[in-house]
Write a structure and sequence with these properties.
single chain; alpha+beta; 2 helices; 3 strands; 16% strand; globular
Length: 115
């Protein structure tokens, strides 16, 4: 499995002058359990020493807690691994405002929850 980091320089609004430049990485993590450990290992081994400001966004296909899921269950080991990675990388989880879940087919029983 190959993971690549291709940072994009993002220039902020020059009027705010809070951040002049940051690295933006859009992540799409593997959806299958077999790729999650390799993905987290790759993420933990990234050399980000040249990134003063780094925005890491996207779909990690991992959950921080069971409450983040739209159906019951979840792998506690994967959740712990993801939380440990966030802590080890000193990332800040920016709270989401709006719907409880970012993906929805707007049905009473979400498609991702149907069997």
């Amino acid at each position: 499995m190959l993971f690549k980091l291709m940072p994009i320089v993002l220039l902020s609004n020059l009027l705010t002058d809070l951040i002049t430049a940051a690295f933006l990485s859009n992540i799409y993590g593997p959806s299958h359990a077999s790729g999650k450990l390799a993905f987290i290992t790759w993420l933990l081994n990234l050399d980000t020493t040249s990134f003063e400001d780094w925005l890491l966004v996207g779909d990690f296909n991992l959950y921080r807690s069971a409450e983040d899921r739209n159906k019951a269950g979840g792998d506690a080991g994967d959740m712990q691994m993801f939380n440990d990675a966030i802590s080890d990388l000193e990332l800040v989880d920016i709270p989401f405002s709006g719907r409880s879940f970012t993906w929805s087919n707007m049905q009473l029983v979400p498609l991702s929850g149907q069997t």
